[in-house]
Automatic annotation (TrEMBL):
Boundaries of every AB hydrolase-1 domain copy: 4-226
Highest taxon, organism lineage: Bacteria
Transmembrane segments: none
Cross-referenced InterPro entries: AB_hydrolase_1 (IPR000073), AB_hydrolase_fold (IPR029058), MES/HNL (IPR045889)
Short name of one Pfam family: Abhydrolase_6
Species this protein is from: Bacillus aerius
PANTHER family for this protein: AB HYDROLASE-1 DOMAIN-CONTAINING PROTEIN, METHYLESTERASE FAMILY MEMBER
Name assigned to this protein: Pimeloyl-ACP methyl ester carboxylesterase
Length: 236
């Protein structure tokens, strides 16, 4: 059995994985989901949040686990799991990008994504807050009304600094960690064409395709779990 460590995307928290965790646990896997600094229930002031603080939180969590983990990152956290793999490659069994950013060395999210989410900027707190119509139309466009309302209830303003911070990656470390990508073909937040441009830059072991929006842990729960279970049984 494996240990899955889930890292959420922007505006979210560990809660976003709640609906798929039980299915993995029922198969005997250990499942850990964390709140990044300034997200979920973490009380770090947004002005103190950076990509480095995200990475440090994940590294600290992994170092407490006895075995290498399957590290899963959604959306923004493709940047986070990439840097974590660079820092501690021997502690990662596999990287799993769920419609996530795949950076090249020296890139930030702001270098990859054009425009970004439709959001309002709070200069004092250095955060952005999603606009209501964008959530339903461009993010959870294939998810249920129940999941949409849950998402709206739980999201928080997103610290902006992690979008500007660059990763530092090498082929010798990050490049040797086995990776898979789960693309989402009905994604309006990170369109599938952009996903494919990004994952073409790295030799992924396998590409999984889901006819899902940007939140497959809502819109395609079973299919996402099936992908993760398949990843877990595939030899490194």
């Amino acid at each position: 059995m494996n240990t899955f460590l889930f890292v959420h995307g922007a505006f979210q928290g560990s809660w976003c994985w709640d609906q798929i965790k039980p299915s993995l646990q029922q198969k005997g896997h250990t499942v850990i989901a964390i709140d990044l600094p300034g997200s979920g229930e973490d009380a770090t002031p947004p002005q103190d949040v950076s990509l480095e603080s995200y990475v440090n939180k994940v590294v600290t969590t992994i170092e407490k686990i006895d075995e290498p983990v399957i590290l899963v990152g959604h959306s923004m956290s493709g940047m986070v799991i990439s840097q974590v793999a660079e820092n501690i490659p021997d502690k990662i069994k596999k990287l799993v990008y769920v419609c996530a950013f795949v950076p090249e060395n020296g890139q930030a999210i702001s270098d990859i994504a054009s425009g970004g989410p439709k959001a309002t900027f709070d200069e004092k707190n250095q955060t952005i807050t999603l606009m209501e119509e964008f959530i339903a139309e461009d993010m959870l466009n294939e998810s249920s009304e129940e999941d949409l309302q849950l998402f709206k209830k739980k999201i928080r303003p997103q610290p902006v600094q992690p979008f500007e911070d660059q990763v530092s990656l090498t082929n010798e470390r990050f490049g040797r960690v086995p990776s898979v990508y789960i693309e989402t073909t009905n994604d309006r937040s990170i369109p599938v064409d952009l996903q494919r441009q990004m994952y073409a830059t790295k030799p992924f072991e396998r590409i999984y395709t889901l006819d899902a929006d940007h939140f497959p842990f809502y819109s395609r729960k079973k299919e996402l779990v099936d992908c993760l279970l398949d990843i877990a049984v595939t030899e490194r």
